[in-house]
Design goal:
about 55% strand; Lipocalin; mainly beta; 2 helices
Length: about 160
């Protein structure tokens, strides 16, 4: 039997669930496929809405979560997230890669009052209004004067 490289990579990367003793529930609660409406906000106050999708699962022997979001014609972004108790109780490390826009971002993520806040220094991503079948996500960038500007929001609902 010949295994295609893409199948071998997927099998080596993805996991069926968390490894024994590893609590991945913070981001694992999103496991599955989701649809989204992405609103991007321009500096001039304009906004553009695009449909997309977001897929969450487990990876790296069940020691991490991964997700891929897709905005057709704009970006395919991937995140890898894992808990890091050395960084603090409930703290996760998260790295996002977006090759379409040639960007990478690293964050420390933690639950804050029913939300999940990813702090990247001058970038803050927040999962909010989290329910079993829906949530919201926002992307804010710190401006030179210290204020935060909303760049994107996602309205997300479960596909399966």
């Amino acid at each position: 039997m010949v295994i295609q490289p893409s199948v071998a990579v997927a099998a080596a990367f993805l996991a069926d669930g968390p490894a024994d003793g590893v609590d991945l529930s913070l981001f694992g609660q999103f496991a599955g496929s989701w649809l989204l409406d992405c609103t991007e906000y321009g500096l001039d106050g304009s906004s553009t809405v695009r449909p997309g999708e977001w897929h969450f699962g487990y990876a790296l022997g069940g020691r991490a979560t991964t997700d891929v979001w897709i905005l057709p014609g704009v970006e395919h972004g991937v995140s890898l997230r894992f808990p890091d108790p050395v960084a603090g109780a409930g703290v996760w490390r998260s790295t996002w890669v977006g090759p379409g826009r040639r960007r990478t971002h690293t964050f420390l993520a933690s639950p804050v009052e029913g939300e999940i806040v990813l702090d990247g220094g001058d970038l803050r991503w927040t999962f909010s209004d989290i329910e079993i079948d829906a949530f919201r996500w926002s992307n804010q960038a710190q401006q030179p004067d210290g204020t935060w500007r909303l760049q994107q929001t996602f309205r997300v609902w479960r596909q399966n």
